[in-house]
Every structure is written in C-alpha cells, then in structure tokens.
Design goal:
The protein is of the alpha+beta class. The protein has two domains: about 190 residues, Uridine Diphospho-n-acetylenolpyruvylglucosamine Reductase, domain 3 (2-Layer Sandwich), CATH 3.30.465.10; about 250 residues, Vanillyl-alcohol Oxidase, Chain A, domain 3 (3-Layer(aba) Sandwich). About 25% of the residues lie in helices and about 20% in strands. Strands 12-9-11-10-14-15-13 form a seven-stranded antiparallel beta sheet. A five-stranded antiparallel beta sheet has the order 4-5-8-6-7. A three-stranded parallel beta sheet has the order 1-3-2, covered by helices on one side. Strand 4 and strand 5 form a beta hairpin. The two termini are about 35 Å apart. The model has no long low-confidence stretch (mean pLDDT about 95). Bound molecules: flavin-adenine dinucleotide. Flavin-adenine dinucleotide (FAD) binds next to strand 2, helix 3 and strand 8. Flavin-adenine dinucleotide binds next to strand 2, helix 3 and strand 8.
Length: about 475
C-alpha cells in the first residue's frame, strides 16, 4: 500500500534490498520470468504507479537510505529510500550543506528527484535536480538484459541523456535508480562542504492567518492576486527577493483557516524590511485583519517544523486526490472565481481540503527549459489542489470536488492549465491521470504537453535507448516513439 490508501497491490513478491548491487539481479529475474515490475522508494506517489492490480513484483527501496561522500564521482551519494528529513539532517550536520528539496519530511528521494523536487529553498537555490551530478540506474536493454549504468551531466558522457531524463522526466520511466549523486554546477575542489549550497544560518519565519469568517470574496481575490502579482514581478534569478519564500495554504471554508507562511534568509542585510514589504504587498487592499506571528529560527528547525507538524502530510490512513498547475502571470477573473468556489462550496464539509499556492521564479528561472527535463522555468508560481478523506464511500464526492473545481478554474482553456502566456502546464511529481482523460482534458494540450512541453520527444528518445521493451511503465509514463 502507498501513503495514499487508495493505492493497493497484491504482488507475488516484494523485494526489500539493502544495497545498490542487489537490484540488477532482482530486475533480471522479474524480466526473465515476465513478471510485471514496479519500484517504490518513499511511497508518496499521487497515482497508482507502484501499487496497482497488474503489478506482480515490487522492489521496495525503503531500506536503501545511505547518504555519503563518493570520492570516485566527487559527489554526495544519496540512496533512493532516504527520506527528505534524513537527507536534510545528514547534509546539514555533517557537511553544513543543503539540497533544495520538498517540504514534506517523509517523501522519498527515489521518486522526488526524478520528478523535479520543489521546496522551501526553490527561489534561493532552485530545484533539487539543479544540483544533480549523476544517477546510477539499472536499465533493461533490447535483449532483456538488466545492467547498471552511471550517467553524469558531463558533456562528454555517452550516457548524458539518461542523466538529463532524470532531471524532471518523472519516476518509473527508464529503470530503477539505485543512487543519485549531487554536486552543484560550478562547485570546485573535493571537500564535500563545498559541493552543495550552504543553508541560511537562520530564517525569519512568518505566519499570517485569516479567519474565513472574516474574508469576503473581494478580500480572497485581493490576497491571491497580490500573491500572484508579487511573484510575477519578483521572478528574476538576480532579484534580492530570491531570499524570500512564501506560500498560501488556503483551507476549505469548513476548516476556517486561510494561511500565509513565509521565510526570509535572516543573514541578508535587509531581511526584516524585505519581509515587511512583502507582507504589506500581500495585505494591500485587504479589509480583513489576520493573526500575525514572526519567529527567528535555525534553518533546520524551520524545515523540520514545517515538514512534520502538518498532519495532512503525515497521516497514513487517508485517501487522497491532487491536481497541479503552473502560472506564468496573474489569475484571470474566471480562474479566481474557480478557486474561490472550490474553497467555499457549501455542499461540502471537509476541513482537510486545501489549495496550496506556492512560489517559483528566482534561481529556477536561471536554467533554460531544455537544460533539464523539467521545462517550466518561466513559471512564477504553482498550485496544488489537495483533498484527503478516510472513507472509500466518499471517493466520488471528493475526487469529484477536485475534478469539477479544477475544470471550472481552467474553463477558458478546456479544463486544463495549457502552456500559454498565463498558465504553464502541470508538475509531474503531482501526477494526475485525469490529464489524459478526454472527459476532463478538453483542451488543445495533450497530457505530455502539460507535463513536459517541448522536452517530450527527447524523453521519448531516451526511453527508446534505455527501456526499449517498455518494462518501466505506468499511467503517465513516457511512451516509446511511434
Ligand atoms: C504528503 C506529500 C507531500 C509532498 N510534498 C512535496 C513537496 O514539498 N515538493 C515536491 O516537489 N513534491 C512533493 N510531493 C510529491 C512527491 O515529490 C512525489 O510524489 C514523489 O514522486 C514521491 O517520491 P517517493 O519516492 O516518495 O514515491 P514513490 O511512490 O515511491 O515513487 C513515485 C514514483 O517514482 C517511481 N520511483 C520511486 N523510486 C524510484 C527509483 N528508485 N527508480 C525509479 N523510479 C522510482 C515510482 O515507481 C513511482 O512511479 C509530496 C507528496 C506527498 C504525498
């Protein structure tokens, strides 16, 4: 079973290897016997890509959690079963460095990196893939032979395209990743303390909470549009505001809370005024008065607190549905209306429903769309629709909530955030199989236009070169070229 209890499987075998060398023989035996194979690292997949009715063999990498300096590649090796909080703690305490990965502490590196890896340091340090130097993958060739390949970002590496495909191409597509190796571009020397970014020593974190009972639709529109306008205006990689990160977590009205969580690197000279100016920009024209609190705290404490204290990130008993959208510019009136209706639907009473509006821009915009498989480098922000519930009897109600509110929000473009001047597609780590269902996707964009844009043919070429038998596949996997 995955974290999302909608996803279950009844395989014949689950392998729980302890080290990378064990993987190729397991893959070989599954391929030779024709046993349908999937891979699990942290188990946080939004869809049934690992746990489904067809799978017969699961490779569960939960026990492969090693994090160490690898002198051969002069990089920090991270095994796929390592979860994000363990990675942050080990890197910070051992070498005083960080990787800019996700917020939720229990997400596994295995799927997270392959899908892009977004988190609190996105504007300051980019995505986790922006620091990926190499990947070790067990692939299966045209003759059905399993073998491990190390692919690096070196221009002269004959396997460079396999590395590239793991910079946002998505998990479960090309083989089994047995290790990721991290070293930032431009890092020099062989001291691991200099191979990755330094974290902020401290952050000034801010918590702003509006009570839904005080918010009019005009206030809602104002906060959300102020947030979008600020991020569009501050998306440059050289903007000093890249040291500030902030997200909106707007719960459904039945919850009562509409939250704005922010943090600024406290070591920059004008940290307090940057935060004050930002909060003033978001509150500009908003009538309702929020609760406001500010705390200076060490970076690691902030990461641990935000990653572990949100029950919705950690509850292993819930069913869930998610959707995503990237935005390049501020919201249209129709989109704003769709978001407001989603959070105020009176026939639904579920305090777990929430919409997260989160930052992009800054360091992410310094990378060209084709330099990594993740093409959404011009996005200023992204959205996540999130609903959880415990009872299978409510599946239709809550999956329906996500589908209908998303379709309404993007009704001007066929129900999807198609790549154009306003929207920019979807995030593959927030996988949503509705994007390939003509009932919900009535747009001109295919599912792969939404996730990969112009990078899709190149991903297909990598698929053909490294998984010509399509052994690694799922509901949104890269297709072999026709
Ligand atoms: C509560 C929650 C919070 C989240 N927060 C964030 C966040 O802050 N930022 C963000 O960017 N994303 C976030 N995500 C999304 C997350 O990054 C993706 O779901 C990611 O793919 C999960 O990786 P995993 O290893 O935990 O999941 P898994 O379910 O184990 O794997 C996900 C996919 O990758 C494949 N895969 C896993 N391991 C390997 C491997 N070793 N080799 C090849 N394929 C593999 C699987 O087969 C599957 O297709 C969150 C998800 C959840 C559920």
């Amino acid at each position: 079973m995955g974290l999302n209890t909608r996803w279950t499987a009844t395989p014949n075998a689950v392998y729980v290897p302890d080290n990378p060398a064990q993987i190729a023989p397991i893959v070989q035996s599954a391929v030779t016997s024709g046993s349908r194979l999937t891979v699990r690292s942290g188990g946080h997949c939004f869809e049934n890509f690992t746990y489904n009715a067809d799978v017969k063999t699961i490779i569960d990498l939960t026990n492969m959690k090693g994090i160490y300096y690898h002198s051969g590649l002069n990089a920090i090796a991270v095994e796929p079963g390592a979860i994000l909080l363990d990675v942050y703690k080990k890197l910070y305490r051992t070498w005083g460095v960080i990787l800019p990965g996700g917020v939720c502490y229990s997400v596994g590196i295995g799927g997270h990196v392959a899908g892009g890896g977004w988190g609190w340091l996105v504007r300051r340090n980019g995505l986790i893939i922006d620091h990926l130097y190499a990947v070790e993958v067990v692939v299966v060739d045209a003759y059905g032979k399993a073998k491990a390949i190390v692919a690096t970002r070196e221009k002269t590496d004959p396997n460079r395209e396999l590395w590239w495909a793991h910079t946002g191409g998505g998990g479960g597509n090309f083989g089994v990743v047995t290790r990721y190796f991290f070293r930032s571009p431009g890092a020099t020397g062989t001291d691991p303390r200099n191979l990755l970014p330094k974290p902020p020593q401290k952050v000034l974190s801010s918590f702003v909470a509006w009570n839904w009972a005080d918010l009019t639709q005009a206030d809602f529109n104002r906060i959300v549009q102020n947030y979008a306008n600020w991020h569009v205006a501050n998306s440059s990689p050289t903007s000093p505001t890249r040291n500030l990160v902030s997200l909106i977590q707007a719960f459904h009205k039945s919850n009562g809370q509409f939250l704005l969580l922010s943090a600024v690197d406290a070591s920059v000279s004008n940290a307090q005024s940057m935060l004050d100016d930002y909060l003033a920009a978001i509150r500009n024209g908003v009538v309702a008065t929020p609760f406001v609190a500010e705390v200076p705290q060490p970076w690691l404490q902030f990461a641990e607190q935000t990653g572990t204290t949100n029950a919705l990130l950690n509850d292993v008993t819930l069913r869930a549905k998610y959707k995503s959208a990237y935005m390049k510019s501020a919201f249209t009136p129709t989109q704003l209306n769709g978001l407001y209706n989603a959070l105020t639907r009176a026939d639904i009473n579920n305090p777990k429903i929430n919409l997260v509006i989160s930052p992009y821009g800054g360091a992410t915009a310094a990378v060209a769309p084709s330099d990594t498989a993740m093409p959404h480098r011009q996005a200023a922000l992204k959205l996540l629709w999130s609903v959880q519930w415990p009872d299978p009897a409510d599946d239709a109600l809550y999956i329906g909530w996500a589908r209908q509110s998303y379709q309404e929000t993007f009704s001007e473009t066929g129900g999807m955030p198609v790549p154009n001047d306003v929207t920019d597609g979807c995030y593959i780590n927030y996988a949503d199989v509705d994007t390939r269902d003509p009932v919900w996707n009535q747009s001109t964009a295919t599912w792969h236009d939404l996730y990969y844009k112009d990078n899709y043919p190149r991903l297909q070429a990598v698929k053909k070169a490294y998984d010509p038998r399509n052994i690694f596949r799922h509901g949104l996997s890269i297709e072999l070229p026709s």
